[in-house]
């Protein structure tokens, strides 16, 4: 056992993950499992994960920013799975694994000889997690899937039009479908490991992106269509209102969500607008919608009277739910994130320093940690085969 392995911690210590994933969904899932203590064996082509070459790296073309963000706590084995020797090597590694996970199309895995039936023949109690775009049994099954395609099919591209009134369908500016479904893959893996611990049985697990992401993103937005016999509209009212945005302070931005009318009154009073609900401008508004607009106008005016730090102190003192709204340029300086050491500067051998985001989960007895920096292609091949 190497020193790195001996230093492993986390509630999944002792669990080995055979990771044949690329892009975002799979690597995000397996990194999370690695953060939880699992020994993640990343199986790569000799040319490496396709994300390695995206974006700039200091000294190589194989440590792009997104790859670095998604591939800590893994050991890399480089194998040519199109060769018979490569297939035999993976078969040997499979025998030591608890979980086999991939996000390739099922027919591609069958051609390579690593379908569930193939892998279970080698390791009968294997947990085989297959992340696919569209679930088995439907007409989309087997089609290629990427984040934008899943956002489109799930209705997510119709959320910004509900918010800003621009009818053009647009994806949300995040690789949110991949990352969400990656977390569902983690949940499924943990559930299957629990079943195996009770019964000794492995099993096949399918994680379909369209089904899992649609349930996630539309949970609140089915809203008025929940009961088909009643009139209603799609869209959760408080999440799609155009007023849902940070307020400008003297020197930054603040989000305020008063939990009661009394909280709103106090915030406005602290911002120089006393008796807001009895004021002429509020009472003279033409109707309820106009009063809502006046309310938010007053909130914006009040927010501008203090700095963000002053508001953070005032809102804490008066129990008004509020939080600074970080811009991307100020995120690294957030006092809470700095205090808990969320951003950690580490070093990749031969590459230089990089910024890592530490796991947020905390366990009192089996703490998560960053044990391994993102690996070079095949860096652990000899080590793992020797084991």
Keywords, separated by commas or semicolons:
single chain; 387 residues; alpha/beta; Rossmann fold; formyl-coa transferase, domain 3; 2 domains; 6-stranded parallel β-sheet; 3-stranded antiparallel β-sheet; 11 strands; 38% helix; disordered N terminus
Overview of this structure, please?
- With 387 residues, this protein is α/β, with parallel strands linked by helices.
- The protein folds into 2 domains: 3-218 and 340-386, Rossmann fold; 247-324, formyl-coa transferase, domain 3.
- The chain contains 17 helices and 11 strands.
- It has helices at 3-6, 25-35, 65-70, 84-94, 106-112, 116-122, 147-154, 159-164, 176-199, 209-217, 237-240, 261-270, 280-283, 288-303, 308-317, 335-339, 381-386, and strands spanning 16-20, 39-44, 74-78, 99-102, 127-132, 203-208, 247-248, 253-256, 322-324, 343-348, 352-357.
- The strands form 3 sheets. It has a 6-stranded parallel sheet with strand order 3-2-1-4-5-6, with helices on both faces. It has a 3-stranded antiparallel sheet with strand order 7-8-9, with helices on one face.
- Strand 1, helix 2 (25-35) and strand 2 (39-44) form a beta-alpha-beta unit.
- Helix 2 (25-35) crosses helix 9 (176-199) and helix 12 (261-270) packs across helix 14 (288-303).
- The longest helix is centred in the middle third of the chain and has 24 residues, at 176-199.
Strand proportion, as a percent range, falls in 5-15%
Largest beta sheet: strand ordering: 3-2-1-4-5-6
The general outline is: globular
Low-confidence stretches: 1-6
Report the total helices: 17
Radius of gyration: 25 Å
The tally of domains stands at 2
| Cα separation of the termini | 8 Å
Q: Give the biggest sheet.
A: 6 strands, parallel
Text of the CATH class of the largest domain: Alpha Beta
What is the assigned CATH homologous superfamily of the largest domain? Crotonobetainyl-coa:carnitine coa-transferase, domain 1
- At CATH level 3, the topology of the largest domain is Rossmann fold
Query: How many DSSP-defined strands?
Result: 11
Q: Which structural class should the secondary elements be placed in?
A: alpha/beta
Q: H/E order of the elements?
A: HEHEHEHEHHEHHHEHHEEHHHHEHEEH
Provide the residue-averaged pLDDT: 95
Binned, the helix content reads 25-40%
């Amino acid at each position: 056992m190497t020193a790195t392995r001996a230093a492993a911690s986390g509630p999944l210590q002792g669990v080995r993950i055979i990771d044949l994933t690329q892009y975002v969904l799979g690597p995000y899932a397996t990194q999370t499992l690695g953060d939880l203590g699992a020994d993640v064996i990343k199986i790569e082509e000799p040319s490496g994960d396709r994300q390695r070459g995206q974006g700039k790296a200091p000294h190589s073309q194989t440590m792009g920013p997104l790859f670095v963000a998604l591939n800590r706590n893994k050991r890399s084995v480089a194998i040519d799975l199109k060769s018979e020797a490569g297939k035999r090597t993976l078969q040997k590694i499979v025998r030591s694994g608890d979980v086999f996970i991939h996000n390739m199309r099922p027919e591609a895995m069958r051609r390579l000889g690593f379908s569930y039936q193939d892998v279970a023949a080698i390791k009968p109690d294997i947990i085989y997690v297959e992340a696919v775009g569209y679930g088995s049994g439907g007409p989309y099954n087997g089609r290629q899937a990427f984040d934008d395609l899943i956002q489109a099919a799930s209705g997510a591209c119709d959320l910004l039009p509900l918010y800003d009134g621009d009818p053009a369908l647009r994806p949300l500016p995040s690789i949110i479908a991949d990352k969400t479904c990656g977390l569902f893959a983690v949940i499924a893996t943990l559930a299957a490991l629990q079943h195996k611990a009770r019964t000794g049985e492995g099993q096949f697990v399918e994680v379909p992106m369209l089904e899992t992401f649609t349930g996630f993103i539309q949970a609140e937005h089915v809203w008025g269509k929940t009961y088909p016999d009643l009139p209603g509209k799609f869209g959760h009212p408080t999440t799609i209102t155009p007023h849902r945005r940070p307020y400008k302070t003297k020197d930054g931005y603040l989000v305020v969500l008063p939990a009661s009318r009394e909280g709103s009154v106090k915030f406005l009073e602290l911002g120089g607008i006393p008796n807001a609900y009895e004021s002429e401008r509020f009472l003279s508004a033409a109707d309820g919608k106009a009063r809502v607009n006046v309310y938010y106008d007053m909130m914006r005016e009040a927010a501008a009277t203090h700095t963000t730090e002053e508001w953070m102190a005032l809102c804490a003192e008066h129990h008004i739910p509020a939080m600074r709204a970080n811009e991307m340029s100020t995120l690294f300086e957030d006092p809470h994130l700095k205090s808990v050491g969320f951003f950690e500067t580490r070093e990749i051998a031969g590459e230089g320093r990089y910024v890592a985001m530490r796991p947020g989960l905390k366990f009192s007895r089996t703490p998560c940690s960053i044990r391994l920096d993102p690996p070079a292609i095949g860096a652990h091949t000899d080590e793992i085969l020797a084991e």
